[in-house]
Task: structure prediction
Amino acid sequence: QVQLVESGGGLVQAGGSLRVSCAASGRTIGNYAMGWFRQAPGKEREFVATINWSGADTYYEHSVKGRFTISRDNSKNTMYLQMNSLKPEDTAVYYCAAEWDYSGSYYTKKYDYTYWGQGTQVTVSS
Result:
């Protein structure tokens, strides 16, 4: 079992930056692929970014590529999402997710993940 807790969300103006964090407990995240998803009211939870177990490989949804950076510090059992040049359409609850992985791969589908945090709200105003 691994427990995930997001933090760092808040209210920012368009063009601003935030860094959200995902702290894991119960197990080391060194054996897990991890990802960030977001969900706006009335919308499906959508993929944002993913990172493999070592942090060597990452992948981003098209609309955030170049603006967001996913990273992990396995020694701290923490994953991060640095969000720059924020836009109002980035407003959503941001969730972190983890999935046991032995291949060093990453995953972009929400159905591939077993463990989820409770989410942290990010609101971007015009």
About this structure: The CA atoms of residues 88 and 124 lie 5 Å apart. The chain has a mean pLDDT of 96. The longest strand covers residues 92-100. The chain is about 0% helix and 50% strand.
